[in-house]
Amino acid sequence: MFKVLLFTDAREDAICIVDHNLSEAEARACCRALREQGLPAFIQKQKGRHRSAGAEACAACFREIEKLAKE
After folding, report:
1. Distance between the two ends of the chain, CA-based, in angstroms?
2. Measuring CA to CA, which residue among 22, 17, 25 is closest to residue 60?
3. Which of 8, 20, 26, 33 could form a disulfide with 4 if both were Cys (CB 3.0 to 4.6 A apart)?
4. Phi and psi of 43, rounded to 5°?
């Protein structure tokens, strides 16, 4: 299962997508690195591999995160 890495920005009331299509190990390592920098990072499961190369412009990531936020 693929993972998407996110962090929240409470000041801006926003969620930033950092990376996607990560393995479990890649996601944990990246999340740990962001948390060490003081960023509130977390990992979310993806429904499947996203075709977009860049997470910051990935429409599938945004749709999944918007759906999660509404739940």
Report:
1. 21
2. 17
3. 20
4. -115, 140
Residue with tokens 């926003």: 14
State the pLDDT at residue 35: 92
The reply to whether the predicted model has a pTM over 0.70 is yes
The tokens describing 70, both together, are 């509404």
Structure-token pair, residue 50: 């996203």
Would you state the pLDDT for residue 1?
62
Greater confidence, 1 or 32? 32
What is the Cα–Cα distance from 29 to 10, expressed in whole angstroms? Answer: 23
Q: Pseudo-torsion of CA 44, 56, 60, 64, nearest 10°?
A: 40
What is the sign, positive or negative, of the torsion defined by CA atoms of 9, 69, 19, 29?
A: positive
3-class secondary-structure state, position 29: helix
CB 8 within 8 A of CB 52: no
